[in-house]
Amino acid sequence: MPLNILKRPRRNRKSLAIRALNQETFLAPSDLIFPFFLLEGSNKKEPILSMPGVHRWSCDMLLFEIEELLETGVQSVMLFPVIDFSNKDSFGSYSLNHHNFLYKSIRNIKKSFPDLCVIGDMALDPYTDHGHDGILDPVSGEVLNDETVYVLGQKALMLAEAGIDIVAPSDMMDGRVQYIRSKLDQSGFTFVSIMSYSAKYASSFYSPFRDALGSHLSQGHKLGYQINPKNSLEAILECKLDEEEGADILMIKPAGYYLDILKEVRSRTQLPLAAYQVSGEYAMLNIAAQQGILNRDRALYESLICIKRAGASMIVSYAAKDVATLIRSGENPLEW
What we know:
The chain is an alpha/beta fold.
């Protein structure tokens, strides 16, 4: 004899079709951004051991990979240059060198794929011999805010001249969004967007990324400019300031361990929100799958669904190509 239960939510879960009718969160390939590590030279494809399935690419090889990526429905990429140590110094000077292979690569990519959205990360840590995101005070060792912002403004112009669609300052310097916006607008690049790393935490989950770039710190730490993982109000303030300064898109980084921040910021802004599933998050899921602990497809798909559910408009992920392929196949990996 049935119990006298008035509300039975399980009725909305009883079949695949009914579960589909009641699905609240949707993930599309066009929501995803694939981050690429870019090498100087040609005919290069180097595996990154700490990030299974991820490679460093020379531009000629990357063009073939982008062509495959577009077939999955992913329409956006983010570029990170891998700089030879011989081109690094304490000021990150090579970032402003017109012969920097990054700018030539952007031109080649946009020439081959004019409709592709190309996003340029703007941090100086790939270019500095100390691994920090800015210029150091020679006495105190502190990252100098305003001097760094000036360099970022110059770099934004060079990216814009190369044909970038979106610049993405990830340095967490005060006032950099306002300065970059003013420099772009004054130079006629009013349609170049700013995706600001607004809440970038001083996270331990960036280590594989630093392996990929070869940009480990030689001194100090980043707690003086990246956000303390113990804080949330500080992140909300940073997002508010970036919006006021003219950011077009706000980013939360890392994504998976900061879903509370993502959800809170979503409730406070009308701007699009990006979330970055960082290298450590990606690596952990892949290594667990290699050990037979997790199903790789299910775990990666679920991790991105959770980020989208928390409020992300778009997600930067090294799993973008694989998850997009899964979505396009019509298979729902959560229906096992």
